[in-house]
Amino acid sequence: MQPTVNKQRIHLIDLIRGFALLGLPFVNVLGLWSDNVNLSGEHTDIIVQRFLFVFVEGRFFAIFSFLFGVGIYLFLSRAKAKHTNYQLIFIRRMAILFVIGFIHQLFQPGEALLFYAIIGIILLPFFKLPKQWNLVLGIIGIIVGSICSAKLLLPLPFMLLGLAFGQYHVFEKTMSYRKSWSFVLVVSFVATIIATVYLWMQAPSLGMTSYMDSFELTELQIDMNRAFFAFTEIALMLAPIFTLFYVSSLVIVEPFIGKLLTPLYAYGRMAFTNYLGQTVMLLLVLQFIVKDSIVSYSYATISCAIIVFLQIIFSTFWLKHFKYGPLEWLWRCGTYGEILSIKK
Length: 344
Fold this sequence. Notes:
Layout: H1 11-32, E1 37-38, H2 43-55, H3 59-82, H4 86-107, H5 113-123, H6 131-147, H7 155-167, H8 178-202, H9 219-237, H10 239-257, H11 262-269, H12 271-290, E2 295-296, H13 297-318, H14 326-336
Parallel strand pairs: 1-2
Keywords: Membrane, Transmembrane, Transmembrane helix
Organism: Candidatus Pseudogracilibacillus intestinigallinarum
Domain DUF418: 168-337
């Protein structure tokens, strides 16, 4: 079976995907290190918590979901042009993702790939719907999910929105949409400033304190935790504003400072490898460095930053010698049922 060849890779999508990937380990580390991170209420931890929940939590996950929708359109449209059985090829692709996601969730409960594979199959009929329908359905779904502060309701509408953007060829024709992107940037920038000030003021002064062995929370800490969870619901409700600002900013600045952002292109091209690699590296640090110790939230955050830095270096080096990331290559081989060339 002849694979679909991507002759005109959309580098802007790689850049945005790389940017989205930056924030994921900072959110996922608490789930992986839940028994070893002491949210003690220290000043540094409080600032880190507040920063991550204002600028990261739910924002980068939304970008990833949106780009997954764009990727579904690109894959299906290119496969359709070359294969009569393009739907079966896509289903096989999602089935492989499902299996990998199932294995991954054994180590990281709540991981995204399993969920994405299921939604990917659900989205298959939407590929044939008019782009206006997908656009409207995506926007309505995002609004409803945000108002409900329901994180699990947001991936599907964000993917629908990404599918619609693919149908409109927004990323192939960024110059044609430049005025629209500029308008979105200005509006979302103002909204982001307002949302940031509001969230920063609403954030509980003592942050969130975790339950540790042989450590009981005081009544004040329990009340602050409740306040913090209420704050996270508001933060999630406002997440699409930040997502819109991040994406529109990258679209506008990319033609001017694209060369400075070169490492993010490589990081985004190997998103599959790096996403799973983040879990592996966090677990290795937990197993061989943290061990049975109790570490601060700041320690965990710094560990994530180091992992991201190392992955960017590895991705840049790898793609100088190979066409695809290692897991991207395996996924591609499985999709088309043959061993494909990986060397440049």
